[in-house]
Amino acid sequence: MKTTRIAALIFLLLLWLWLCNAIIVGAGGFTFKNIFLIVASGIIIFVPLWKKYIRNGNNNN
């Protein structure tokens, strides 16, 4: 994987963590709804990226 893709994935991860922190702080702490939102958004964001870039890492995409 190219350095730019790694940097972009790290930036996306940090942005997602920052937004998760905003959800927890701004929406009343750890509730079932907040945990669900964090897990669902993580799945929506990172599973397709995992399938495209990491699982098929032998391809030169």
Folded structure, characterized:
- By secondary structure, the protein is mostly helical.
- It contains two helices and no strands.
- The termini are close together.
- The mean pLDDT is 86.
For the biggest sheet, the summary is: none
Please indicate the percent range of residues in DSSP E strands (runs of 2 or more): under 5%
Radius of gyration: 14 Å
End-to-end separation in angstroms reads 9 Å
Mean pLDDT: 86
Low-confidence stretches are none
| Backbone shape | elongated
Q: SS-based structural class?
A: mainly alpha
Q: What is the H/E order?
A: HH
Q: Please work out how many helical segments DSSP would assign.
A: 2
Helical residue percent?
over 70%
DSSP strand tally: 0
In short:
By secondary structure, the protein is an all-alpha fold. 79% of the residues lie in helices and 0% in strands.
Considering the chains and any ligands shown, give keywords for the structure:
61 residues, 79% helix, 0% strand, elongated, 2 helices, mainly alpha
List the helices and strands and how they pair.
Layout: H1 3-26, H2 32-55
